[in-house]
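Progress against Task 2.4 (sequence-to-structure conversion) is shown through the following example record, which the project officer requested during the mid-term review.
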Amino acid sequence: MKKFAILFAMLAAMTAAQAQVTVFGTMDAGFTTGKAPGVKDSSTSFTSGGMTTSNIGLKGTEDLGRGTKAVFEVSSFLNNGNGATLGGTTANMWTRSAFVGLGNDRLGTVTLGRQSNPSFLPTILFNAYGDSGAYGPLWHATYFGNTGNPATRVFNDTAWDNAAVYTSPKMGGATFSVAGSKNAAGNNTGANVLWFQGPVGLTAYWQETRVNSSGSFQTDIFTGNGNKPAVAKGVGASYDAKVAKLFATYQETDSDSLKMKGKTTQVSARVPVGAGNILAEVATSKFNNAGVKKDFNEWALGYDHNLSKRTDVYATVGRTSVTGVGVGETFGVGLRHRF
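Structure tokens generated for the chain above:
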């Protein structure tokens, strides 16, 4: 971490005079007790990134005039337990993000580098547990969860390498993004749209993945299978009724390599109580993998208490059942601080 501190100090010193540069991140740590489906005995472990994967980064903008600005961001995922970076198949320092771009108030923004794929924002913005990799049922059904759901291999990772992304300016409450990832073995492509107006939110996305991401913790289903396409698509909605914010999503996956089709439905609610929120979420996945059918059912219930605008403590319980495998349980507590 000493190298990290020196590097951040050098970057900040070199750029501060020319651009607005911000150090940002999240530190999230706690403990989890439980067992995965099919495992006999439970265990307790230190958990890094229970509600949000711990991360640290630099981002900045430079005003170029006439409503145009340059933007950049580099950020790394961290393990709070031992201070190591998290990098998937390769231990890249800037696995979370590494991009540069140009933005214009009227024309939109183009960014180049490693950045979120089209499914990421529609997923984390439309469920009560957000981007909780340890406890969120929709996350476990979409990305690298702890249930063994093969449908998550279709999504592969939350970000793409070598990506170019165009994001439109807001138009009547809506923004859309178009993404392409250029790689020697093939190209990843996709798009999404987000619309928020008053208490209502809507989203949709489509993406086709042909190349494994260097940041992925998933099994690579592309390199050894001729880089056949894996398609994921979904829709989502939210409604803030004040007494509760409600979420619902539906997504489908289709992989030529796995000969697998999957469908996931999720409903959840975030209910304000006291200085925090009750979180409740249920996700159900049904898939057919070369004729083998399985259901993955998971629910989670928790409370997230705000100590301040940037610091919160949480506790959550959950249960997962998998056809032909068994049942798993989870109980977790943690502390999260954003800066």
